[in-house]
From TrEMBL:
Protein name: ATP-grasp domain-containing protein
GO molecular function terms attached to this record: ATP binding; metal ion binding
Residues of the ATP-grasp domain: 129-315
Pfam families, A to Z: ATP-grasp_3, preATP-grasp_3
Keyword Nucleotide-binding assigned: yes
Keywords (A to Z) from UniProt: ATP-binding, Nucleotide-binding
Alphabetical list of PROSITE patterns matching this protein: ATP_GRASP
Entry annotated with the keyword Protein biosynthesis: no
Matching SUPFAM superfamilies: Glutathione synthetase ATP-binding domain-like
Entry-linked InterPro entries: ATP-grasp, ATP-grasp_PylC-type, MfnD, MfnD_preATP-grasp
Amino acid sequence: MKILVYEHITSGALCTEPLPDHLVREGNAMLQALLNDLAGNQGVQPVILRDFRLDIPPHTHRCHYVRDLDDFRRRWLACLDYVDGVLPIAPETDGLLAEVQSWVLKTGKRLLGCRPEATAIAASKTRTAEYLAAAGLTTAPTVWLRDWQPDTFTAGALICKPDDGAGGTDVLYFENATALNTWKQQSPSETWEKQIVQPYIQGTAASLSLLCAEAEAHLLCGNHQQIQIENGAMRLTGITVNGMEYQRLDRKIFQGLADTIASVLPGLWGFVGVDLVLSPLPVVLEINPRLTTSYVGLREVYGVNPASWFMTLLHKGMEAVELPPQPNQKVTISVEEGLAIQATHC
């Protein structure tokens, strides 16, 4: 089976502009891990589009170098003709991921990822909160910046971020309502229509790695996220895959949470990430309807090829996927140091 692994940042779609180093590191790490894992499955031939400024990663059956946008369009269409399915990894921002998913479906190729209708919901933090809250999950109180007033929430720190987009992009931290109100008054009114405000929730930053399909979910592992606040901005500096401590909360709680999310958004398919805060019970923040950086550590955590679950899901369905027992390894990924990996025993 020929599979186009479409990693947007490294694909050549940005060939006319400078490549953002940190996004290239993350994109390359995910792409290389996935290519390695897919190539370990008999009969799978990974195909990629590649920015001409980057080297060809190993385990690539066919690579199409991209030098300009016309070249990108031609090679994208040529790849769609050549492959059997497409596994997209792209930001949700501005509807990009949903557009890629829709295009794959229109061409009649197999979409090896979430359905665009699920991605459209997950890409919006307010819509995600509405769907999950209606299903009984705890979510962060959320209001649009245009509607926010200094007395909207009780005293404490606040977060302001875009409603649309991927994960922790452009997340601003304010120590109190006065600081946020000052920033709001100095911001153009169009910003008010795109940003949301949430109280800063004290607790442990975490994420879940899931395998989803057919309104069901397998919990692969819970991850501990290292978040740094500096100069009024929040950023992810590291992830400990399988680093979530279950002593306080039973793993069944997180599997139940995963089951609810999959039932609320039945179009989730394949590898999916969920961001949350343990405060101390889980507060769900966002859903990432695609493979995330945590995937890079899954093979070492489990000691098996995680793409084998993916291929079983593809060919035989969710009921045929059998996970090994809960692993006793954890892997720390330093996002700011070239995605260096350090393995330790739990």
